[in-house]
Amino acid sequence: MRKIYVTICCTTIIGIVAIAFTPKRLSSVSGSQQQEPAAAEQRHQQELERKRESFKSGRDLLLKHGVPFDPDLLLEPGFKKKLAPAFAAMPEFRESRLVGKQIEECNLLTPSSCLRRSS
Q: Is the backbone of residue 71 left (phi > 0), alpha (psi -120 to 50) or beta?
Protein backbone atom coordinates (compact mmCIF):
# COMPACT_ATOMS: atom_id res chain seq x y z
CA MET A 1 0.00 0.00 0.00
CA ARG A 2 2.82 2.38 0.83
CA LYS A 3 4.51 1.82 -2.57
CA ILE A 4 1.28 2.77 -4.35
CA TYR A 5 0.98 5.92 -2.24
CA VAL A 6 4.60 6.94 -3.01
CA THR A 7 4.12 6.19 -6.72
CA ILE A 8 0.96 8.30 -6.89
CA CYS A 9 2.64 11.19 -5.04
CA CYS A 10 5.71 11.10 -7.32
CA THR A 11 3.57 10.94 -10.44
CA THR A 12 1.44 13.86 -9.24
CA ILE A 13 4.51 15.98 -8.44
CA ILE A 14 6.11 15.22 -11.82
CA GLY A 15 2.83 16.10 -13.56
CA ILE A 16 2.52 19.42 -11.71
CA VAL A 17 6.14 20.34 -12.48
CA ALA A 18 5.67 19.41 -16.15
CA ILE A 19 2.56 21.60 -16.38
CA ALA A 20 4.28 24.50 -14.61
CA PHE A 21 7.22 24.52 -17.02
CA THR A 22 5.26 23.94 -20.22
CA PRO A 23 5.60 26.88 -22.66
CA LYS A 24 2.50 29.03 -22.63
CA ARG A 25 2.21 29.25 -26.42
CA LEU A 26 2.16 25.50 -26.84
CA SER A 27 -0.61 24.51 -29.17
CA SER A 28 -1.64 21.13 -30.42
CA VAL A 29 -0.66 20.54 -34.01
CA SER A 30 -2.39 17.81 -35.89
CA GLY A 31 -3.39 17.19 -39.47
CA SER A 32 -5.20 20.24 -40.82
CA GLN A 33 -4.08 22.42 -37.89
CA GLN A 34 -0.44 22.36 -38.98
CA GLN A 35 1.06 25.75 -39.57
CA GLU A 36 1.59 26.55 -43.22
CA PRO A 37 5.13 27.52 -44.22
CA ALA A 38 3.81 30.65 -45.93
CA ALA A 39 2.22 31.88 -42.70
CA ALA A 40 5.43 31.22 -40.76
CA GLU A 41 7.45 33.08 -43.39
CA GLN A 42 5.02 36.00 -43.28
CA ARG A 43 5.30 36.18 -39.49
CA HIS A 44 9.12 36.06 -39.78
CA GLN A 45 9.05 38.92 -42.31
CA GLN A 46 6.81 40.99 -40.03
CA GLU A 47 9.18 40.44 -37.11
CA LEU A 48 12.15 41.45 -39.27
CA GLU A 49 10.32 44.59 -40.41
CA ARG A 50 9.51 45.46 -36.78
CA LYS A 51 13.18 45.07 -35.84
CA ARG A 52 14.28 47.25 -38.75
CA GLU A 53 11.79 49.94 -37.81
CA SER A 54 12.90 50.01 -34.18
CA PHE A 55 16.58 50.01 -35.25
CA LYS A 56 16.14 52.92 -37.68
CA SER A 57 17.45 55.64 -35.32
CA GLY A 58 20.44 53.49 -34.33
CA ARG A 59 21.14 52.77 -38.00
CA ASP A 60 21.07 56.49 -38.80
CA LEU A 61 23.50 57.26 -35.97
CA LEU A 62 25.90 54.54 -37.14
CA LEU A 63 25.78 55.80 -40.72
CA LYS A 64 26.35 59.38 -39.51
CA HIS A 65 29.36 58.19 -37.52
CA GLY A 66 30.73 56.47 -40.64
CA VAL A 67 31.05 52.85 -39.54
CA PRO A 68 32.87 50.62 -42.07
CA PHE A 69 29.96 48.18 -42.46
CA ASP A 70 26.26 48.13 -43.28
CA PRO A 71 24.40 48.66 -39.95
CA ASP A 72 21.62 46.32 -41.11
CA LEU A 73 24.07 43.44 -40.71
CA LEU A 74 23.70 43.89 -36.95
CA LEU A 75 20.15 42.54 -37.22
CA GLU A 76 21.28 39.23 -38.72
CA PRO A 77 22.17 36.17 -36.66
CA GLY A 78 25.90 35.63 -36.32
CA PHE A 79 26.76 39.28 -36.91
CA LYS A 80 29.66 39.18 -34.43
CA LYS A 81 31.60 36.68 -36.52
CA LYS A 82 30.73 38.38 -39.80
CA LEU A 83 31.74 41.84 -38.59
CA ALA A 84 34.74 40.85 -36.43
CA PRO A 85 37.29 42.27 -38.95
CA ALA A 86 35.38 45.55 -39.16
CA PHE A 87 35.15 45.78 -35.36
CA ALA A 88 38.89 45.10 -35.05
CA ALA A 89 39.63 47.96 -37.44
CA MET A 90 37.55 50.47 -35.48
CA PRO A 91 39.49 52.50 -32.90
CA GLU A 92 36.36 52.79 -30.74
CA PHE A 93 36.68 49.13 -29.83
CA ARG A 94 40.22 49.64 -28.54
CA GLU A 95 39.36 52.52 -26.19
CA SER A 96 38.65 52.22 -22.49
CA ARG A 97 36.34 54.74 -20.92
CA LEU A 98 35.33 55.41 -17.36
CA VAL A 99 31.75 56.52 -16.93
CA GLY A 100 30.75 58.09 -13.64
CA LYS A 101 32.77 58.50 -10.47
CA GLN A 102 35.47 55.99 -9.67
CA ILE A 103 35.54 54.40 -6.23
CA GLU A 104 39.13 54.02 -5.15
CA GLU A 105 38.79 51.87 -2.01
CA CYS A 106 36.07 49.37 -1.27
CA ASN A 107 35.85 46.36 0.99
CA LEU A 108 33.61 43.84 -0.76
CA LEU A 109 32.71 42.13 2.52
CA THR A 110 31.21 45.30 3.95
CA PRO A 111 29.69 47.43 1.17
CA SER A 112 28.97 50.24 3.62
CA SER A 113 32.72 50.77 3.99
CA CYS A 114 33.16 51.95 0.40
CA LEU A 115 34.87 55.33 0.73
CA ARG A 116 36.48 57.72 -1.72
CA ARG A 117 39.88 59.05 -0.92
CA SER A 118 39.91 62.75 -0.29
CA SER A 119 43.15 63.79 -1.95
A: alpha
Residue ranges in the chain whose pLDDT is less than 70: 1, 5, 9, 17-18, 20-35, 102-119
Please state the pTM of the whole predicted model: 0.46
pLDDT in tens, 104-118: 555 555 555 555 554
Q: Return the domain boundaries, the chain.
A: 49-73
Could you give the CA distance from residue 109 to residue 113 in angstroms, rounded to a whole number? 9
Contacts of 110 (CB under 8 A, 6+ apart): none
- Nearest Cα neighbor of 83 from 69, 65, 94, 66 is 69
Round the CA-based radius of gyration of the chain to a whole number and report it.
Answer: 27
- H/E element, 65: helix 37-65
